[in-house]
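Researcher: Please predict.
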Amino acid sequence: MKNYTWHKQSIVPDLKVIECPVYDPIKDFHRDPTGVYVLVRCDIENSTIEVAICDKKHTIINAFRGHKAQDLYCTIFEYEKKHKLKWFSRKDHAAYLGKELRKAEFGLLGKGTYVQE
């Protein structure tokens, strides 16, 4: 592929670069089949990020608190695995959690106000 390089990696001769369409958060949104969703907020006073795991009845079933995005998502996914739960059956649902946690982390660092999408 013409002028397509990475750091040190070799590239297969028939590499396909796929152009991604723009994601529409309304039209393209799909709820996780489990019905579980997350709420994310910043506690500025205590410099923490909080994540509430909610069921399809809108009841908070677990809550997690931490200082960094990675600490939270690793703990949440490990908890889910340890207790044989199925909170994140869709990869885009897990990716959304990571994106929101990173935004919240920036909010704690004073690099903007955090508002969950």
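Model: The mean pLDDT is 91.
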